[in-house]
Amino acid sequence: MPIYSAKAVVFDLDGTIADTLDDLKNSVNYAIGLLGLAPCDRNTICGRVGSGAANLIRKSLPPEADEETVKKTLSEFYGHYMSHALDGTKPFPGVLELLNALKERGYRLAVVSNKPDAGTKAIVSALFGDIFDYVSGEKSGIPRKPEPDMVRFALDALGTEEAVYVGDSEVDVKTAANSGLPCVCVTWGFRSAEQLKEAGGEVFISDPSELLEMLGK
């Protein structure tokens, strides 16, 4: 088990600290249902999340769907999701205990998500209160993950370059690499350990408490 010298931890949101999958599935199915399309199951949606809502909707529409259809369906998805994002969403077991322990030890904490900024902040506030020092979702004009820009803004806000990145997807593995941060992959999220290994993941935890053992403070 590697030991990291860090002053901050940057977390992904969906699949890492919060199980958002059922609410995402329900909102996707609402939006595509307006077009008469068959609903997607949980496993299908699980394989499509991670690269932002627009990509999630594109993958849930027929390949021949034009951009106007994608745009309208995305709008319907957003409208539904913002009203239902907390119907079933909850922290993964052990995550609250982990965050409280990190805070008590003096770590600076951030969330960086490809989910739209308003939704990201609403979910984090509802589930975790003000425990995070910085929270950001996708914003216009800022490249989303796996580009490093969102993480760089987080590190600037946290006031340190000494950080560990924690995520659950191939997007997160690439984001950490592009940001120059060590990546800790969680195996309770939306990708399997095998998928993460194929994406280049090297360090894995199956329980939130394991992250505490990796941090040297």
Describe this structure in words.
By secondary structure, the protein is of the alpha/beta class. Helices cover 45% and strands 15% of the residues. It has 10 helices and 8 strands. The protein has helices at residues 21-33, 42-46, 53-60, 67-84, 95-104, 117-128, 149-158, 170-179, 193-198, 209-214, and strands spanning 8-11, 18-19, 90-91, 108-116, 134-138, 163-167, 183-186, 204-205. The strands form 2 sheets. Strands 5-4-1-6-7-8 form a 6-stranded parallel sheet, with helices on both faces. A two-stranded antiparallel ribbon has the order 2-3. Strand 4 (108-116), helix 6 (117-128) and strand 5 (134-138) form a beta-alpha-beta unit. Helix 3 packs across helix 4. The two termini are 15 Å apart. The mean pLDDT is 95.
Main sheet overview: 6 strands, parallel
Q: What is the mean pLDDT?
A: 95
Strand order of the largest sheet: 5-4-1-6-7-8
Question: Considering DSSP H and I runs of 4 or more, what fraction of the residues is helical?
Answer: 40-55%
Radius of gyration: 17 Å
Oligomeric state, counting identical vs distinct chains: single chain
Model regions low in confidence, pLDDT < 50 over at least 5 residues: none
By secondary-structure content and strand pairing, the structural class works out as: alpha/beta
Strand content: 15-25%
Number of helices: 10
Distance between the termini: 15 Å
**Apparent shape:** globular
Query: Could you state the order of secondary-structure elements as H and E?
Result: EEHHHHEHEHEHEHEHEH
Number of beta-strand segments: 8
